[in-house]
Write a structure and sequence with these properties.
The chain has 340 residues and is of the alpha/beta class. The protein is built from eleven helices and ten strands. The protein is globular.
Length: 340
């Protein structure tokens, strides 16, 4: 089965409008037609929330959220803080999630639905939309030399493939993410629906209804996969097609000096095996273990924001102080404000 992350690069036509502001930033809601050629109904429009500093833009950040919708409010909180200290911060709503849910589905499900045609469609789409978001930021002059991609859970998995395809990040921060898709499909509380489908008689031509066989294939083929070049990985017909959308297959292609990998010690959503295997492939990366669960770290994003401004070399003490005195309330922008 062939994977296709390609798209036609071109000037992007878009619509936008400022929707609220803080003391040191404004949030612009941006939409444009996806450049992915096989989008599912309901996912055709790329949606970005771009938090632009009112003062000079010192650096750039892209945030890729996790599976589903609940975590997005925390990503917005993070973006507000980063924009306040001079970092243009863009949240991409990944296709199949939040306000971009595909017809007759629920938020996030299609990335892990045990049908490779559907899975390929959404992993391809998520990767293409991330790449075109970077293209768009470059087009608008908002992509700076100092930049970072923050990927949480699903976002870290998509981001890994993105950076392997087109290395252009200065820093890559993965929060509570993992790899090894069989482990995620069959051993995660978030994917119990997969086992229920199998119990009801679901069958798949690629043996996704046979967990034991898929695990056996992974055990036999992974040593080969992690030695492949990018072209070999994308074109090979000798490996199981699930490898081609597994971040575990792409991690060895990324410069580990760019990577900070943060693992949650009490993560129940992603198994220890899933987390450890992906971290291991980023040989030489910074690896931290924090005493939280998969989602319980979210209210403590302030600490992560501190790490990000340190990585991006924000040294101005006056600007950095905004992070510690962040008590502003967003104001909605009405038509009169937008005109000004």
């Amino acid at each position: 089965m062939k994977i296709n992350f390609s798209y036609e690069k071109k000037n992007i036509d878009y619509t936008s409008g400022f929707i609220f502001k803080g003391r040191h930033y404004r949030c612009n809601y941006i939409r444009f037609k996806t450049l992915y050629r096989n989008s599912a109904e309901g996912t055709e429009t790329v949606e970005l929330y771009n938090f632009e500093p009112k003062d000079k833009v010192l650096a750039s950040a892209i945030i890729l959220h996790g599976l589903g919708s609940a975590n997005i409010k925390y990503m917005i909180w993070m973006a507000r803080r980063l924009a306040s200290v001079g970092i243009n911060t863009t949240i991409l709503i990944l296709p199949g999630n939040y306000t971009r849910v595909d017809k007759n589905s629920v938020s996030g499900r299609s990335y892990l639905w045990p049908d490779l045609k559907i899975m390929y469609q959404f992993w391809e789409h998520g990767v293409v939309d991330t790449l075109t978001t970077i293209d768009f930021l470059k087009q608008k002059g908002l992509w700076k030399k100092d930049n970072i991609l923050l990927g949480y859970c699903l976002g870290g998995m998509v981001g890994t493939i993105v950076e392997a395809l087109e290395p252009q990040l200065k820093y890559f921060l993965l929060m509570t993410t993992g790899g090894h898709l069989p482990e995620i499909l069959y051993n995660s509380p978030a994917t119990k629906f997969v086992l229920r489908l199998i119990e009801k008689g679901f069958k798949d031509e690629y043996d996704l209804h046979r967990p034991d066989k898929i695990f056996d294939i992974y055990n036999k083929q992974f040593e080969k996969v992690k030695k492949m070049t990018l072209n070999e990985l994308l074109s090979s017909e000798s490996i199981h097609p699930l490898f081609k959308i597994d971040p575990l297959s792409y991690a060895h292609l990324i410069n580990p000096k760019k990577v900070t990998f943060v693992e949650a010690l009490f993560d129940k959503t992603l198994s220890k095996k899933s987390r450890k295997m992906l971290a291991k492939e980023f040989k030489g990366a910074k690896h931290y273990i924090i005493p939280t669960g998969h989602v319980t770290w979210l209210p403590f994003e302030f600490l992560l924001a501190k790490n990000i401004i340190s990585l991006l070399n924000i040294e101005d003490l006056r600007i950095k102080a905004r992070l510690y005195a962040f008590d502003e309330i967003d104001e909605a922008l009405d038509d009169e404000v937008i005109k000004k």
